[in-house]
Design goal:
It is built from 4 helices and 22 strands. The protein has about 350 residues and is mainly beta. Helix 1 crosses helix 2.
Length: about 350
């Protein structure tokens, strides 16, 4: 018989545990954004009817309907125009209908399955397909990813691994959207690592997004250059006092300065953070008018709004990488070395006193 397809687009999130970058950030922080993105990304749909009682010898049998379009609603409308046709060998059989909505990479974004019996089918009763929002492919160039779930003490209580598709996108579980005690950690194929607070998904520890210009590097002298193109964190752990140059070519972005130095106390390494951060516009030397500075957060990254280019240096506790003495021994002996803490110089883009992200 012929059957028509009717849909009840009820959006149900899956409950099992496990793109553009901006869309992905919005999507992990909001189920509404995730849903809208999933609706928008549908380009193809398949409607399939299955039953052990379908007569395979029926020459007019058509149990698979396909349609393409732009967005879930349009694809569903076009599927509804189709009319699967089949013949049942018995009215006692169970019939199952499946609906799949795909994105351009053939990821299943929405799914529905419904069952009815042969008697209902003969009577022309049409079941409703209630669509379920599946795990959604987000980001790109992902090697692996997991979610840290923090307990009431602030420690990681559970680590949930996420699946990664063949097209290097992570599959995000809808039920985690906006969760207040979780952190998404993404390892990219380019070697960088980004942490996202799921309830406020601005990158909190993106590994240096620096771009080495030409083949010249100052890293041997502990000076690092970064080209910022999104909200991000820069920094790392250093054994010598670093200086930065950070450039933003378009727009303005929050940059978290996540800088730590290693101090050895009784043979044990201890991490400390600088107490202040200093900004020098191009052409302005340390101590000259035109620069400005901010206190640094001692419990995590210091977030500042960056919009142009600055050299940046930091004020440290004297115990970190202190100056060395100048050799003053006999002239016949080789000097053991000359050292100086110097004045760190680094660059960042900030033209207004920014507020911490939590206050935005």
């Amino acid at each position: 018989m012929k059957t028509k397809l009717s849909f009840l687009l009820v959006l149900i999130c899956t409950t099992s545990i496990l793109g553009a970058a901006d869309q992905a950030l919005l999507s992990i922080g909001s189920l509404v954004h995730l849903r809208l993105t999933a609706l928008d990304n549908v380009v193809r749909g398949v409607w399939r009817i299955e039953s052990t009682a379908i007569d395979s010898t029926y020459e007019n049998s058509q149990t698979i309907i396909e349609a393409t379009g732009s967005g879930a609603e349009q694809v569903v409308d076009r599927l509804c125009q189709g009319e699967p046709e089949y013949r049942l060998l018995t009215t006692n059989a169970t019939i199952t209908g499946y609906l799949y909505l795909y994105d351009v990479r053939s990821n299943v974004l929405w799914f529905a399955a419904v069952q009815w019996n042969g008697a209902e089918d003969e009577a022309g009763l049409e079941p409703d397909y209630s669509m379920t929002l599946m795990y959604q492919p987000l980001f790109s160039g992902v090697q692996s990813a997991h979610v840290n779930a923090f307990d009431s003490t602030g420690n990681i209580g559970q680590i949930h691994s996420l699946e990664v598709t063949e097209s290097t996108q992570l599959l995000w579980p809808p039920f985690m959207c906006g969760s207040t005690n979780t952190e998404l950690v993404v390892y990219y194929t380019n070697g960088s690592v980004t942490n996202y607070k799921v309830s406020d998904p601005v990158p909190k520890s993106l590994e240096v997004q620096g771009v080495q210009r030409k083949t010249v590097s100052f890293e041997g002298a502990n000076h690092y250059r970064f080209n910022v193109q999104s909200h991000t964190n820069i920094g790392g752990t250093y054994t010598k006092r670093p200086t930065f140059m950070v450039s933003v070519t378009n727009g303005q972005y929050y940059v978290g300065f996540d800088v730590c130095g290693i101090v050895y106390i009784n043979g044990q390494g201890v991490l400390i953070r600088p107490t202040r951060i200093y900004f020098l516009p191009p052409g302005v030397e340390p101590g000259s008018p035109g620069g400005f500075d901010f206190p640094m957060d001692q419990n995590g990254p210091t977030y500042l709004l960056v919009s142009t280019t600055y050299r940046i240096y930091f004020e440290w506790d004297p115990s970190f990488n202190p100056p060395q003495s100048v050799y003053a021994g006999p002239t016949e002996e080789e000097p053991t070395g000359v050292g100086s803490s110097g004045i760190p110089i680094a660059e960042i883009n900030i033209n207004i006193p920014p507020l911490p992200l939590a206050q935005q």
